[in-house]
Amino acid sequence: MKNRHSRSRGNGLLKVIAVMFVVLAFPTLLILHSKWNMQKMTQAPAHSETQAAAASDYDAYSSFEQTVITEAAAPIETLVPQEISQEHEMELPAAQSPVPVYDRYELVGLGLDLDTLESDFWDRQLDVAARRQHVLASFTYEPKYAALCKDYGITGETEYVDLIAVGDNLYHLSITNAGKQEDGSYNYDNIYANIRDYIKDMDIKIINQEVVITSDQSQWTNFPVFGAPIECGEAVVNAGFNVVTHATNHSWDKGRDIAQEDIDFWQSQNDLLLTGMYDSQEDYDDIVVGEYKGVKVAYLNYTQNLNGFTLPADSKYMVKLLNMDVVKSDIEKAKQVADIVIVFPHWGEEYKTTPSWYQKDLAQKMADAGADLIIGTHPHVIQPLEIITSEDGREVPCFYSLGNFVSNMPWNETYVEAMAKVRIKKEGKKVSIEYAEAVPMVNFRSCNLTDYTVYMLEDYTAEIARTQRKPEITPTYVENFFNSVFTTRRYDFGKTTYGEE
Which of 207, 384, 429, 447 would you label with 120, given CA atoms 20 to 30 Å apart? Predict the structure, then answer.
């Protein structure tokens, strides 16, 4: 009996020890197992099969949200949906889980104290980022950011530069006279009033200044030798245009002195670039470049003739003529200092809505020489948008003619005009043209020729058309004529890139 009680007490002691082992040892093992899993994650090779599987699916997600860990939990190196993850079998309560669970492939670990993170973890984190060619701006606080981005070819934050361009700002004498105010002064702000809001948020706003401007009223003349008021230039500036192309067939209509006055006016304007007319040989030889959100854009402007005039030997630098040797040389220089090179040729046959073989030949040569965008003027009517493939395989948009911006020409076709709209995209050092679009516009003049202005077609109503000098210029007429010329109104370039790879 005594021995049986001793065995019972012994069995009871073993049971107590077993219970204590379960109570005390199991959580310890659980914690050790969790730590082992965590160590396994942070020490995994940078190119594990799990990472490769995750990276291959990045493109399946079209939207992207930043995820920030707000508690002191270890960041996720690579996120794998639960249904394909085989690495962690154990389910822990959320409060105990060493790694938050997410259902999307996202870069996390933002907002954590860098002192608590191992640099090799960030190497792997950025390696994953490199596979999607995108890195969040939040990563820029990482001390090794620049070096790691270079090593992995990771691009930076995306920037967009929006550009618009309009055609010939051509002041006939009736337009000049319409600007006279009751006090005897001249003002032309009304011409641009209806597009000001449309273009105000654009980064680059280009206008082709067809005629020279002067303060000498005796030089305000009509066809065939033009001169316009200096107030014309003031209205252009007030409208918000910041690039003026000025090499046209009328640039030398008034000779050297007025050409110099004209150049002086445009060069005196703050935040405005003038191209095509120059005040020195050094200015002529230089490349006009503007910078917008880190994107450098070069503006090259040429005219095919000077209305029968010839530049004097001592003034040949004042207007740039269309010569392909000069164009190629300028493009070569521009490629060294700019991300995007735009060529503005003043070319073609007047009143022809199709480009001539001469224009097409020159456009191809400009594209082959390295031009990224071509915007033409001079024919006084619109001509199509064409996508030219250069010798090196780039797609180069060419607007052969935007038509007149403002004029008093009587033919119906001259009432219809185009605005070139282009978006430039910058990702790190890669610069691309994302899309090019032709937007319809209408040249308006009142019946008594006292009011001139320009409308976007979207704002041009049947009621406004009834007050036109030619009421047959209806919204439907404009739309149909525009579509007959611009069979391609918009072209999206996808992944076409220019600049440094």
Answer: 429
